[in-house]
From TrEMBL:
Natural source organism: Bacillus mycoides
Keywords: Membrane, Transmembrane, Transmembrane helix
Regions crossing the membrane: 6-24, 36-56, 62-81
Pfam families documented for this protein: DUF1294
Source taxonomy: Bacteria, Bacillati, Bacillota, Bacilli, Bacillales
InterPro entries: Cold_shock_CspA (IPR012156), DUF1294 (IPR010718)
Entry keyword Membrane: yes
GO MF: nucleic acid binding
Protein name: Uncharacterized membrane protein YsdA (DUF1294 family)
Length: 82
């Protein structure tokens, strides 16, 4: 069951990074940074991190460059613990 949640939340976080990048290019309404972080904190940190680099999105913002990897470590640790 935890694998299903882990996969789904990471696909969602990855997709959110891609959608926000597309909206940024089109100068449309954007996904708030707090929402991107919330999806990462909810277990989607790995997907968010991969999305950052695949889509080249938020890679110059220090709170993402340092914050998301910290959430990856926490998420993987919690996931392996439970």
């Amino acid at each position: 069951m935890k694998w299903i949640y882990f996969i789904i939340i990471n696909v969602i976080a990855f997709s959110m990074m891609g959608l926000d990048k597309r909206k940024a290019k089109k100068k449309q309404w954007r996904t708030p940074e707090s929402t991107l972080f919330l999806s990462a904190a909810a277990g989607g940190a790995v997907g968010a991190w991969i999305g950052m680099y695949i889509f080249h999105h938020k890679t110059h913002k220090s709170k993402f460059v340092f914050g998301i990897p910290v959430l990856v470590i926490i998420t993987v640790g919690v996931f392996l613990y439970i």
